[in-house]
Amino acid sequence: MVRDHMAVEVTFSIIVILMQVFLGILLSIISIYLSLRFFDQMTENIDEIAELKKGNVAVAIVLMSLIVSIGLIVNQGVQQFDEVLLRGVSVPFFIVAFIMAIVQIVFVVMVAVLSMYVAIRLVDTMTVGLDELKELKRGNIAVALEIAAVIFVVSFIVSGTISGLNNLSIFRPETLASLLGVQ
Fold first, then answer.
1. Do residues 151 and 116 touch, judged by C-beta distance below 8 A?
2. How many CB atoms lie within 10 A of CB 119?
3. Quick check: helix, strand or coil at residue 179?
4. Could you give the CA distance from residue 48 to residue 53 in angstroms, rounded to a whole number?
5. pLDDT tier at 102 (50, 70, 90 boundaries)?
6. pLDDT over threshold 70, residue 166
């Protein structure tokens, strides 16, 4: 009887881990795609793919900073439910926690994409007399590093904020479960 219960727990844990991996990959791809689309919209005069094919390192640096920063922020959204979903919980509680995880991750993806947009706009307003996009197209690595640094700083701050939100009781599945009378 105990062995059967342990086998069910192990199987459940493996299923949860696989779901988290799949969800993490899917949401990372979606958020990276959205960020790159926003960046593409902001850089009307730059064809990023053509620039990458030409070996434009400046454009590659900025795109790399966007991708890493999005991953850093989305990671915080995915991490919160590891401990809740992997401990022994009832099926109704698991469903509540899983739905909350999905809602929170969608929120985190939107925050990640928006924060990258704001970061790039921030760089543009801070540097009067410098057309960053024109410089990126010319392959100016110094400008690319400046943009990448601002993107990284914004993502570190946003990531920390998302991590802090995870600690608030309103974002804990236990809170919603108790309001719904689920155990």
1. yes
2. 24
3. helix
4. 9
5. confident
6. no
Alpha carbon distances (Å) from 83 to 6, 16, 79, 172, 173: 18, 11, 8, 11, 11
Question: Residue 111 sits in which domain range?
Answer: 2-180
Residues 134 and 57: beta-carbon distance below 8 Å: no
Q: For residue 21, what pLDDT is reported?
A: 79
H helices of the chain, in order, are 2-42, 48-53, 57-79, 82-86, 91-126, 132-138, 141-166, 173-180
Looking at the structure of the chain, the number of domains it has is 1
Contact call for residues 57 and 138 (beta carbons, < 8 A): no
d(CA 151, CA 153): 6
Residue 39 near residue 48 (C-beta atoms within 8 A) = yes
pTM, to two decimals: 0.74
Short-list 75, 61, 71, CA closest to 143: 61
Distances from the Cα of 18 to the Cα of 23, 28, 66, 75, 113, angstroms = 8, 15, 26, 16, 25
**What's the token pair of residue 136?**
């990126």
The CA distance from 157 to 47, in Å, is: 29
pLDDT digits (tens, 9 = 90+) for 37-93: 877 887 778 888 899 999 999 999 999 998 898 888 877 776 665 555 555 567 777
